[in-house]
Amino acid sequence: MTGENMEIREIGEKLAALGMWKRAASCNWAVRPRGVAYPYFCTVMLPADEHDPKGPALLMLDGWETFHAFIHTSIDNNFGFYSQPCEMPLFRLQTGGSEPFRLYRHRPVYSARPANALERELCAKILWECYGVLLRLETERDLPMRYARQNAIFARVEDAGGNWRDEPLPIVQPRPHVERISILRTDIAKAKDVPMLNDESWAVDFHLVPGIVSAEPVPRMVYRFLIVDARTGGVLCRREMSADPERGLHVLWESLAQKLVSFFGKHGCVPGEIQVGSGRMFRMLRPICPELPVKLTLHDSLPVVEEAKRQISASPADPPALPPSQDVSR
């Protein structure tokens, strides 16, 4: 084990020994090492199941934009385009599992990978300051809120001499969230030419596929677009795809209305109802409604979609990981 890896592990063990994960999970603080362009925002994520062997994770989020996205998504999972932290630019220290206290690098579009030597060196500094923050939390319960009245976040900042001090980090306002959804007029015209089946109801879903990555030297995360017959549970359309890193994840979400309208024409009918299971999907497909007489309904859950996902995961015919330039329709 290299010195950098040993240092990360040793700090991780010290953090765990404090027994402060639950208290830290309600806090956010920032760490800004010398020579780094932006602060890292630190928070603890507890597993949904306290018996999960992976244990808590300490996240170090890249800069203000990521921090705002994380907070917004934590409050409302329908916000924006991120569904979970693994899609965001961040470092993650996993405290349990088969390799406890291993450090991972997450970047949008790409699959997570173990941190390299330079990243471990940077994160060792950040994690050591996190250790100091958690140590102080034992007696200074309001430490993360110290600068709240100044509209600032508590931060540990390294100066030019390598010394660390407490500082208020003034809150930067998030940029307005923008969604650009367009549908080809030619595909709308084709959809208007096929029969409208008012008794037909389809459930539509789009999700990150766990455990599958694209087949390339730097693997990308794979997403799946599903259209399921809401009455029979039959899969009408299944497409696996990856996002273009130059354009970003948002382009995949913004393309869903186009994909669905295009499928209407290929399938030869338009259903009377489209069921969706999230507010984000509802927003993505809503531009279809002024163009076609489709009823778009939002549901708390879509059992037919969950069953289709379960069957796909269990199927030995699951397609292999695909290059991002390709997808599969079924």
Shape: elongated
- Can you write the helix and strand succession as a string? HHEEEHEEEHEEHEEEHHEHEH
Number of strands: 13
State Rg.
23 Å
SS-based class: alpha+beta
Number of spatially distinct domains: 2
Distance from first to last alpha carbon: 46 Å
Number of helices: 9
Please list the strands of the largest sheet in the order they lie side by side: 6-5-4-3-2-1-7-8
Would you identify the regions where 5 or more consecutive residues have pLDDT less than 50? 324-330
Largest sheet: 8 strands, mixed
Structure, described:
Strands 6-5-4-3-2-1-7-8 form an 8-stranded mixed sheet. The protein is elongated and about 70 Å long. The protein has 2 domains: 168 residues, no CATH class; 130 residues, Nucleotidyltransferase, domain 5. Helix content is 30%, strand content 26%. With 330 residues, it is α+β, with helices and mostly antiparallel strands. It is built from 9 helices and 13 strands.
Summary?
This protein is of the alpha+beta class and about 325 residues long.
Mind sketching the topology for me?
Elements: H1 3-17, H2 21-24, E1 29-32, E2 40-45, E3 57-62, H3 63-75, E4 90-94, E5 102-106, E6 113-114, H4 117-137, E7 152-158, E8 164-170, H5 185-193, E9 196-213, E10 221-229, E11 235-241, H6 249-254, H7 256-267, E12 270-276, H8 279-285, E13 295-298, H9 303-314
Parallel strand pairs: 1-7, 9-12, 12-13
Antiparallel strand pairs: 1-2, 2-3, 3-4, 4-5, 5-6, 7-8, 9-10, 10-11
Helix pairs in contact: 1-4, 5-7
